[in-house]
Amino acid sequence: MRRIVENVLFFFLLVFFLAAPSSVAYSEIALAAVVLLWFVRLALRRGEPRARMPRRSILVAAAACWAIASVLSVLFAREPAASAWKLLKLLPIGLVFLLPEILRTPARLRHAAGALLVGGFMTSAYGIIYYLNDPSTRLGGFIGFYMTTAGVLLQIGLLGTAILFTRGIGGRLAWIARIALPVLLAALVLTDTRGAWIGLFAGLFTLLLFAGRRLAAVPVLLAIFFVAVPGKPRETALSSFDLRHPRNRERLFMWKAGLAILRDHVWTGVGLAGMERVYEEYRDPRSDERPPHLHSVPIHILASMGILGFAAWLFLVGAFLAWMVRALPVAKRGPPIARALLFGALAVWIGFLVNGLFEWNLGDVEVVTLLWAVVALGVSSVAAVHGSVAGGKEEGADSPRGIGPSYRGV
Fold it and tell me: Which of the two ends of the chain, N or C, has the fewest CB atoms closer than 10 A to its terminal CB?
């Protein structure tokens, strides 16, 4: 019975990773099944010793502070009921603490990463085909909205890059990365989303800093492509530096309004919902847009959650960044997939943060859920190394120490 529950649980987890880049509905259904089966698994394993896990107390503290600040913002919000519904977006952070309990072996990590890359490839290929039929649009993939699709492809592209350029990763996963990554990056370009492009470069330079010189050519070649190749991507890339461009002009109006909102609601902001109505009160008369958010994570948090929320966000950002950087030596002692996933999670974290300077990517449930899933893969890779160091045969492990020769193939 335990073996059946374990296998079905892992199956639904793979479905979640496969569907995450394409469908909120399917991925959330799969994730609900994972959580339900996890509780069944706990009941069946009651009294048994748990697998060794890395220390995550700072991550727990950071997540708790972020949750408390969000609740405070709801309590003092202009629209408390609508803001309370936004608290549901806190749930995906639980993946960081759930997935390491499931993805305990290199083989499972490889399967999960492979499913995510395949899912990203499918939505990218669909989006490219749709774009070729109507080049006047911006690529949206299965999700439909180009900006959300860009936030998703940014993360999977960085994770795929880390997998592709990590020494020692062979087997099917390496081939999946080789096939999927060019399609993912092409689709990301066709979304015509500058913030995601900038986040991609930030993530690539993070990989270059931590993963070695093999990646040096990647950001350089992409920069040459964006600047030297004529056409829409070049025009969009160059517009990033033009403050008179309509997109930049409207963002400056939004950020100015956000700081004005902060001055009037310093501590807890105006709440997690209703920003489009609050913005009307502070909108510059020269502005043409009436956005539902302020196109910048720091500015939007300051306006919606105040100083307390912003401090909690900084703690969350710093805690996860510090934890991943400190975990790098541990991952380097493990199998190649552990190094790749932790490098990838670190790059995705940086890419997401840089993208968030220019977009409200924290508001997209598809993007945020995927962010925590990718970070959870990084934490799981460290947990897998800890489990192998602890020794002993775990159920579903590849070898008595968890890192035997079989990790090379999916």
Answer: N
* Residue 351 vs residues 112, 277, 282, 357: alpha-carbon distances, Å: 21, 30, 30, 10
H or E stretch including 71? helix 57-75
CA 137, CA 76: separation in Å to the nearest integer? 41
| 152: its two tokens | 């998703």
- Would you list the domain boundaries of the chain? 1-45, 59-408
Band of pLDDT at residue 209, cut at 50, 70 and 90: confident
Report pTM.
0.90
For residue range 161-175, what is the model confidence (pLDDT) as tens digits? 999 988 899 889 999
Q: What is the mean pLDDT of the chain?
A: 87
Instruction: Name the burial class of residue 131, with classes exposed (0-12), middle (13-18) and buried (19+) by CB atoms within 10 angstroms of its CB.
Output: buried
pLDDT tens readout for residues 38-68: 999 989 888 776 666 778 899 999 999 999 9
Contact, 117 vs 123, CB < 8 A? no
Buried b (16+ CB within 10 A) or exposed e, 62-94: bbebbeebbebbbebbebeeebbebeebeebbe
pLDDT tens by residue, 18-37: 999 999 999 999 999 999 99
For residues 202 and 326, give the distance between their C-alpha atoms in angstroms, rounded to a whole number.
20
Residue whose token pair is 């790059």: 347
Tell me which DSSP letter residue 52 carries.
Answer: P
Give residue 230's pLDDT: 54
How many helices (H) and strands (E) are present in the chain, helices listed first?
A: 16, 0
Question: For the chain, how long is the longest CA-to-CA vector?
Answer: 68
* CA dihedral angle for residue 106, residue 107, residue 109, residue 115, rounded to 10 degrees: 160
| Rounded mean pLDDT, 344-359 | 96
Q: How many CB atoms lie within 10 A of CB 280?
A: 10
Do the Cβ atoms of 222 and 201 come closer than 8 Å?
Answer: yes
Q: Are 148 and 338 in contact (CB under 8 A)?
A: no
**DSSP per position, 230-275:** -SHHHHHHHHTT-TTSHHHHHHHHHHHHHHHHHHHSTTT-S-SS-H
